[in-house]
Every structure is written in C-alpha cells, then in structure tokens.
Design a protein that fits this description.
By secondary structure, the protein is an alpha/beta fold. Helix content is 52%, strand content 11%. It starts with a strand and ends in a 12-residue tail after the last helix.
C-alpha cells in the first residue's frame, strides 16, 4: 500500500523547498521517495521530478491559447489534469510502492472551493494511496493578529474542503525570532485555543478594528474556529534534522505509515521507533531552540560542526598514514625467494 503527502499552501509558504528537503530526508532514513509536480507554473523545480504536469500542459500555453491570466491559467490547467487524470494514474503505477510527495499549486482557490484538485486526490485514493494533506503557511503570519486569524480561517476551510487526514504546518520557524517579540508564547499559536485573548492585540494593530461591528465580526470568526476544534499547527525548520524528524513522525501517524501493513510484520526501523515513542521536539523545545535561546543554540551547533569536521579530517589523515605504514611493513616482511628471473633477449 503506497503512501503520499499532498503539499498545499499559499504562494511563498515553502512548498517546493519542503518537497526538496523532505525527499533528501526520506532518502537518508532509507525510504524510497518520488516527487510529483502538479504546479504548471513551476518550471524550475529544485528536486528531480518523477512526474511533471508540465509534460501534459504548461501555464504559458494556456495563457496564450485561452487568453487567461496566471490565476485563471492554473485553474484551467488543473481542470485539464482532472479531465486527463488517466495520465497521472498511469505515471503513478510506474512508481510502484514509492513514497510520493505531490507539490501542488499555490492558488488558495484550488484547496478552498474549487473542485478539481479534490477530485484528483480522490482518484489517487482509489489507486490505493494513503494520503495526508499538509497545509504549509509561513510563520510570519504569527507576527500580525489579523494575519493569524486569516490563517486560521484558511486552514479550517482547507480541512473541510479536502476531507483528508490533514496537518497544518508553520514553516520557516527558524526565522521567527528575527520578526520581533510575539504577544504570546508559541504554544498559544500552535494549539489555537483561547483565541479571545488575541482580540485586544487585534484592536491595537488597527484602530478601525475597535469599531463595534468589527469587534462582533472578530468574535464570530474566533467562535467559529473554536467550535470546529480542528485547527492546530505543527512547526518546521526545513534545514533542521530534529524538526524534520518530528514533523515526519506526526505525518506518519496521521497517514498510518508508522503502524505498517500489519502490526510487527516487516516493519522498518523507523516504523518501530515511531510506534515505540521516538522523542521529537515539543512546542516548548521549539520555543527554546528558535526563539528564547536561538543565538546560543546556533553557536553550539556551529562548534559541534567544526569539531566533527576536525575529527573527520584527523581520521582521514590517520587512515592515510596507516596505509603508508602498512605498505612499508609489507615490503619489509616479504622474504627473498632465491629465484632469479632471466628475461630472454
């Protein structure tokens, strides 16, 4: 049974960077992985594509032939893919049991109310894939209360639209300290509870929001999100190994990969480790690493990398010296055979 991640999110949230980093990480832990590009506007991928929608249809062709703009062209391209979904199904069959990452377009209409992307995902499910939707959002949204509320609404709408196992992810969390102090700790934003506490900060951001009609609207939005009780966030620093490990652990549990085809049967080391409680980073660990003590941890990691490089260099030099010594020793211990070889003229 193959597994797959559906990587969605607004433009600039780091979808392609995530696919590239996750593919490398999965290869490191021994999981064969392929990436499928479903974005017709992405003509320079940073990862090798196993399948690319641009071999079926390109955004430039659609814009020229149909006289559409970029957003309309992307929607048209996904409708074209839906109409020719057999092309995608055939390509996926050629990937066998590979773990697949789907890099999706960034137009939010595609995963909030347009039906083509959802229908394509359902067709993929019928092939036997266990899917997990990952909604990526730049962690910069935490710096403005209005932007955070908008992110909550977008995340909730995406979850209801796709109707799949779903994780919301705050990307670029390693940059969050550079944006200035946050009104609340990171745990407040990731759990998305007690949201009424953000109302005073929302009013401070823009005096217009103090008007009674905006106050009522803000309270209604907050109540809507809390009543559903679905939205929460994971965090990600794509270049940090511990952060990637923690996120993959959550993804594998959401999609069922961690539990294997049958409990205990032919499980990988990773599956056993996740099922037995492999410890990742908690939200408090992330707060400490990337906000409270970021400079201290950065310096610590820099020293560790320098020490590791020095040890590797020393080991290489010793190995080279050992090879030379072994060769000299072999020359000394080989006895004379007493046989004289005379070559004929």
């Amino acid at each position: 049974m193959p597994f797959a991640q559906l990587v969605i999110g607004p433009p600039g949230s780091g979808k392609s960077t995530y696919c590239d980093g996750m593919q490398h990480f999965l290869s490191t832990i021994g999981r064969k992985c392929s990436v499928v590009n479903l974005d017709p506007a992405n003509d320079h991928t940073s990862y090798p594509c196993a399948l690319d929608i641009r071999s079926l249809v390109t955004l430039e062709e659609i814009m020229a032939d149909e006289e559409l703009g970029p957003n309309g062209g992307v929607l048209y391209a996904l409708e074209e893919l839906e109409a020719n979904v057999e092309w995608l199904e055939k390509g996926l069959e050629g990937l066998g049991e590979d773990y697949v990452l789907f890099d999706c377009p960034g137009q939010v209409e595609l995963f909030t109310h347009h039906s083509s992307l959802r229908n394509i995902f359902f067709r993929i499910q019928k092939l036997g894939y266990r899917l997990v939707a990952l909604h990526l959002t730049d962690s910069y949204c935490l710096t403005l209360p209005s932007l955070y509320i908008s992110t909550l609404l977008l995340s909730l709408r995406s979850m209801l639209q796709l109707d799949l196992p779903h994780l919301n992810i705050l990307t670029k969390i390693d940059k969050i300290a550079s944006y200035g102090p946050l009104p609340f700790g990171l745990e407040f934003y990731t759990e998305a509870q007690d949201l009424e506490d953000i109302t005073p900060h929302l009013q401070e951001e823009n005096p217009m929001l103090r008007h009674p009609k905006f106050e009522g609207l803000n309270n209604a939005v907050i109540e809507l999100v809390e009543d559903f009780g679905l939205v929460a966030f994971e965090t990600l620093a794509v270049e940090d190994k511990k952060s990637m490990m923690t996120l993959l652990q959550a993804i594998d549990r959401a999609g069922g990969y961690a539990f294997g085809g049958a409990e205990g049967a032919n499980d990988t080391v990773w599956q056993v480790a996740v099922r037995d409680g492999l410890r990742g980073m908690s939200v408090r660990d992330v707060q400490e690493r990337w906000i409270d003590r970021k400079e201290e941890f950065d310096e610590m990691e820099r020293r560790e990398m320098e020490e590791e490089a020095a040890r590797a260099k020393e080991g290489l030099e010793r190995a080279e010296e050992g090879d030379d010594d072994d060769f000299e020793e072999m020359r000394r211990v080989v006895p004379e055979s007493g046989i004289k070889v005379v070559r004929r003229p």
